[in-house]
Write a structure and sequence with these properties.
- The structure holds two protein chains of two kinds.
- Chain A contains seven helices and eleven strands.
- By secondary structure, chain A is of the alpha/beta class.
- In chain A, a hairpin with a 2-residue loop joins strand 1 and strand 2.
- The longest helix of chain A has 18 residues.
- Chain A is globular.
- By secondary structure, chain B is mainly α.
- Classes of the chains: A alpha/beta, B mainly alpha.
- At the A-B interface, strand 5, helix 2 and helix 4 of A face helix 7, helix 8 and helix 14 of B.
């Protein structure tokens, strides 16, 4: 994309100045069991930014989300999420985990899945909507979210009978239904075909800008979201770099991160192709074949 | 368990009046109602959570519990509830924390527990000296030998189970369909998993006391499976599951009263027949409407 649409956005403007901080990691390190995942991570994401989390499999992208949700403690350093310690801010975070799809046997309507995101953690049973104004409000909110993601036509059907793209839209509605300030999406584009990848990316950006929600989107391939991004966080080899997309997805930067020669080529349609990136999931900068769009 | 063939009169009201003149029939109807309501509700969650195999194992564990209680001269109810409660603890321990219910490793572990339970039951029956005349009742139920005291115990346990289920129902639904998101939203999924197994154990024990260890599923799984075919709304599904369980119990008891065949047979046959009808109906309807989901997948 020449002229990179992200350029004019507040994030790429002088590094996050003037914007409020949505999350910050300082000297952060994390391990799963005895295995160190990453260390020395310093991150600052401003409010309302659309951020992609990239890197090879096993580099610790989902681990970052676990840390932000307070499900995994840091072994070193500190983290602040929406001004609080991780975990305390959970109510203001919308989360969409990496997932296999709901299988066909799941006989629960799509709108129930959205509703559970709103108050599924509350004990007791809800009163019928006829008797309870708060339940009516909740139903209204669910309806609004279903319309926002364009799932009105199929929200009444069992979620298991829907296609991957339809399920993903409903799950985004579920993640949004509590009006979160931070949205964590773990590979939401993974199970989608190309046209749906583009549509869902555009939807997420629209929500990000319209509602001022900070979005962290873990992605396997940066290209479908590249036009929309404010910032990129790239994990590899137990470390990370962050910055505007074009500065991070760049030969010298990635070579430094991987400690191996990496080239970034730009196709005529603006797609970025990372060449020589160690694959798969190597933490040791092991050299492999060519052409990997990362 | 079979009844002497009662004569049918042309007037069904008279027939029903005749039926409820027998205290054992009244007790059977009460016990059946209580058990059907509990099993219908718990069963709906069990089917949704794909824990049918765990439920089956708990019902099988009810057998050594009851046989052991008979051998030790303890009340049967103690055997049923003790064994199923203990069984629930064991199943909770062998199921992997955070693992998907119904996973391969889990079902193997549960199968191991089930085999051991059956072995124990067999041992108790043999130790009893081959004179355990109630063996058939332990396996296939005692619908018609229920005392008023038993009905009262069942009522209290059923009320406790249903109240607990109502209290945890919503987060349990969340954890059942969407575990990772529920956990991230602060739902204590592991605790709920454990609580549900315990409730399932109690419901199975209550049901097994009436239907026997082997016929528990006619009330626990079949009505729930039919209900989930019929509706994808949780509230309606639960209500429908309970309604079907009640219906097959009442009709089964009534038919058995006027026929030479046992209650257990009628209840299982009715719930099975209903399930087949629902499946055939759903498949026919499914074929009538185009598979939009498939179509959307390819666009």
């Amino acid at each position: 994309m020449d002229g990179a649409p992200a350029e004019g956005n507040r994030a790429s403007a002088p590094k996050g100045r003037g914007t409020l901080t949505a999350l910050r990691l300082t000297g952060a390190a994390v391990r799963r069991g005895a295995r160190p995942i990453w260390s020395g991570v310093d991150l600052r994401i401003g409010q309302g930014e659309f951020v992609a989390v990239l890197g090879p499999n096993g580099a610790g992208k989902s681990t970052l989300l676990d840390v932000l949700l307070g499900l995994l403690p840091l072994s070193e350093g500190s983290a602040t999420v929406l001004g609080e310690r991780p975990g305390a801010a959970r109510g203001r975070i919308g989360y969409l985990p990496q997932r296999r799809n709901f299988d066909a046997a799941t006989r629960i309507r799509g709108r129930e899945i959205v509703r559970l995101g709103l108050d599924g953690n509350r004990w007791g049973l809800p009163l019928p909507a006829r008797l309870s104004p708060s339940n009516r409000r909740a139903e209204g909110r669910v309806e609004e979210m279903i319309e926002l993601v364009g799932a009105g036509a199929y929200a009444q059907r069992p979620i298991g009978s829907l296609s991957g793209g339809e399920q993903q839209r409903l799950l985004i509605a579920q993640a949004l239904v509590r009006r979160p300030r931070l949205l964590l999406l773990d590979e939401p584009l993974d199970s989608l075909d190309l046209s749906n990848q583009g549509a869902v990316s555009a939807l997420v950006q629209r929500i990000c800008k319209r509602e001022g929600v900070t979005v962290l989107l873990v992605a396997h391939d940066v290209n479908p979201i590249l036009p929309y991004l404010d910032r990129v966080v790239y994990f590899a080899d137990g470390r990370c770099v962050e910055g505007p997309p074009r500065e991070v997805i760049d030969g010298p930067t990635l070579s430094g991160l991987y400690r191996a020669p990496i080239e970034v080529l730009e196709a005529s349609d603006g797609r970025l192709v990372v060449v020589g990136s160690p694959e798969p999931a190597s933490h040791h900068g092991h050299h492999h074949g060519p052409a990997n769009a990362r | 368990m079979t009844l002497p063939l009662a004569g049918l009169s042309p007037n069904p009201v008279v027939d029903l009046e005749q039926m409820v003149e027998f205290p054992f029939m009244v007790n059977a109807l009460w016990a059946g109602t209580i058990v059907a309501a509990t099993a219908g509700a718990i069963g709906w969650f069990m089917v949704l959570r794909r824990q049918t195999f765990a439920g089956h194992t708990l019902s099988v564990i009810a057998f050594p519990g009851a046989a052991g209680a008979t051998l030790a001269g303890l009340p049967l109810a103690l055997g049923y509830f003790g064994a199923c409660g203990l069984g629930a603890l064991v199943l909770a321990a062998v199921s992997r924390p955070g693992g998907k219910p119904g996973g391969a490793g889990e079902s193997a572990a549960i199968g191991t527990v089930q085999a051991f339970g059956l072995g124990l039951g067999y041992l108790f029956v043999v130790l009893y000296g081959g004179q355990l005349s109630s063996l058939e009742a332990l396996l296939f139920g005692t619908f018609l030998g229920i005392t008023t005291g038993q009905v009262q115990t069942l009522l209290w346990i059923a009320l406790a189970v249903l109240l607990a289920l109502a209290a945890i129902g919503r987060p349990l639904l969340f954890a059942s369909v969407d575990g990772a998101v529920a956990r991230a939203a602060g739902v204590p999924t592991r605790l709920l998993e454990f609580a549900f197994l315990l409730l399932l154990g109690l419901a199975v024990a209550a049901t097994a006391e009436i239907t026997g260890a082997l016929l528990v599923f006619s009330l626990l799984v079949t009505p729930a499976a039919s209900a989930q075919r019929l509706t994808a709304r949780p509230g309606w599904g639960l209500a429908l599951s309970v309604a079907i369980a009640l219906l097959v119990t009442w009709v089964g008891l009534t038919i058995a009263f006027f026929s030479p065949y046992p209650v257990g047979f009628w209840v299982t046959s009715l719930s099975f027949g209903l399930y087949v009808l629902v499946r055939l109906g759903a498949d026919t309807l499914g074929r009538a409407t185009p598979r939009t989901a498939l179509a959307a997948e390819t666009t």
